[in-house]
Amino acid sequence: MKEIGASLRAALLERAGEARKSAYCPYSGFAVGAALLCGDGTVYAGCNIECASLSPGNCAERTAFFRAVADGQRKFAAIAVTGGPQGQEPTSFCAPCGVCRQVMREFCAPDFLVIMTDGQEEKTMTLEELLPMAFGPDNLIGE
Ligand code: THU
């Protein structure tokens, strides 16, 4: 597994916390922020964005990915995610939903890192741990 130093992990979590302040989540009241580290060192932030008709809403992680991909980025090293009730500091780990894991699978290697915090401790897992035996691009277009 590729390592990311403690200070970079902390900086990414900090950036995710900043992005979380922009969350638009009037329906769930659950605010999430994400900070995506690209292969070239650039960081893209994202927040969740909800919608009155519910299904068009987007998670923080995918907001960050779609911003980055739309900007031409294709290589990704890690994403930091933090979430919890809006207006409060997070007290539990916010693990990416299944849809976001699948989007990560589209663009990332199995050793892509997902960095989470419950406000006290940090937990880092690989994409392969979060989404084992995944269906992905190689199933359709080869390696
Ligand atoms: N949400 C995220 O943005 N990321 C996650 O990892 C989990 C859930 C959002 C979706 C929705 O706006 C709110 O949190 C409640 O599910």
How does this model look, in words?
The protein is an alpha+beta fold and 143 residues long. The protein is built from 5 helices and 5 strands; from the N terminus they run αββαβαββαα. It has helices spanning 6-20, 60-70, 98-107, 127-130, 137-141, and strands spanning 30-38, 43-47, 76-85, 113-117, 122-126. A 5-stranded mixed sheet has the order 2-1-3-4-5. The chain is globular and about 45 Å long. Bound molecules: tetrahydrodeoxyuridine. Tetrahydrodeoxyuridine is lined by residues 25, 28, 30, 32, 48, 50, 57, 59-61, 81, 83, 94, 96-97, 100. Tetrahydrodeoxyuridine (THU) is lined by residues 25, 28, 30, 32, 48, 50, 57, 59-61, 81, 83, 94, 96-97, 100.
The unique ligands bound to this protein are:
tetrahydrodeoxyuridine
Order of helices and strands: HEEHEHEEHH
Average predicted confidence as pLDDT: 97
Q: Could you estimate the helical fraction of the residues in percent?
A: 25-40%
The biggest sheet, with number of strands, parallel, antiparallel or mixed sense and barrel status, is: 5 strands, mixed
Spatial order of the strands forming the largest sheet: 2-1-3-4-5
Instruction: Give me the number of helical elements.
Output: 5
Uncertain segments: none
Q: Compute the CA-based radius of gyration.
A: 14 Å
N-to-C terminal Cα separation, in Å? 20 Å
User: What spatial form do the alpha-carbon principal axes imply?
Assistant: globular
Strand content: 15-25%
